[in-house]
UniProtKB/TrEMBL annotation, chains A, B:
Segments forming domain Phosphoribosyltransferase: 65-176
Entry's transmembrane regions: none
Organism this protein belongs to: Deinococcus aetherius
Coiled-coil spans in chain: none
Assigned keywords, A-Z: Glycosyltransferase, Transferase
Top-level division of the source organism's lineage: Bacteria
Protein name, UniProt field: Adenine phosphoribosyltransferase
Pfam families xref list: Pribosyltran (PF00156)
GO MF assignments: glycosyltransferase activity
Keyword hit for Glycosyltransferase: yes
Cited InterPro entries: PRTase-like, PRTase_dom
Length: 186, 186
């Protein structure tokens, strides 16, 4: 019942298996690139749990806090926090009215020339201070967001232990620990 | 370690206990209203799990699908889906590039005179068709978002079974099943 049914069936759609759970990924047409496989953990609790379980051993030793970013990785970070016993901190992509002295960090986009802005609320930034922090994402592609998160760890006074993602999809040069590589187009 | 530490300690901060887990809620100053208690499930997996467990009996009988909206309710909806065995569908607040024939629904704001727009991707809307659907939120205040979600259920061809929230915080006239009422100011 929780199977991912987004978008049209495609005979060339890649299949992924994580933690014993298999999904045929939907693909979406992106410009002239062709069809790009899309991972959706939101709306699929079975797949989310399986990925979190498989990602547990990828968390670098000594990690004390997980850092993630809204929105797609949120259920995954929740599960990983629950299973690892490590707290997680979430960076937002919009300023919230309640934020106090947030850290603000731009993500340079490699493809569109526009930049995205990350917001880390001050009291949450304080939870990273003096801590060993691992960055957790659903998919790491160019690595631009991951690098902006790493900069936030540093600015908050934490120490980065590493990058953990369910999937790598692209040519980042960051040392990412991931479960499976996805094609950038099919 | 997962205790909610956002914002300053406040001697008047309300405490809530759900599913045996107690949190002192941070409060934020909002205009001339005073301080408003703030619930944050994001970043607190222990509190999220406790609330989801306590909310299970609130899901109306016959419900086949849960419908929620980003962002704050997302870990809660994931947990509730996992524990109930019911799939969940998530409405977005921004158009995503991959969406196909999304349903678009305005949320009239009662306070600011500006409206927010909800986006339900077509393939996800199809998962509501002919189904009994319960709306799940972290907090229901005015009920404006809840009503917009109900309209989306109807437009997608589903039937609404009811509204479920962890907290009610305000004067909505909707028949919401909730765990606890929060003050709108302290």
């Amino acid at each position: 019942m929780t199977q991912n049914t987004a978008n049209q069936p495609n005979p060339q759609a890649p299949r992924v298996t994580v933690g014993g759970v298999t999904r045929e990924l939907p693909t979406v047409r992106v410009g002239s690139v062709g069809r790009v496989p899309l991972v959706e953990f939101i709306g699929d609790s079975e797949f989310t749990k399986a990925a979190a379980g498989a990602m547990l051993p990828l968390i670098p030793p000594g990690t004390e806090v997980l850092l993630t970013v809204v929105t797609n990785a949120l259920p995954l970070a929740h599960e990983l926090s629950d299973r690892s016993g490590l707290p997680y901190v979430t960076v937002r992509k919009k300023r919230r009215t309640y934020m106090q002295d947030p850290l603000i960090q731009n993500v340079p986009s490699m493809t569109l020339g526009v930049s995205e802005t990350l917001w880390l609320d001050g009291p949450h930034a304080a939870r990273l201070r003096g801590k060993q922090v691992a960055i957790v994402q659903d998919v790491i592609a160019s690595g631009g967001t991951a690098q902006a998160l790493a900069r936030l760890v540093e600015r908050a006074g934490g120490t980065l232990t590493g990058y953990v993602a369910a999937f790598k999809q692209g040519d980042t040069t960051l040392p990412v620990a991931y479960l499976q590589e996805l094609p950038t187009s099919v």
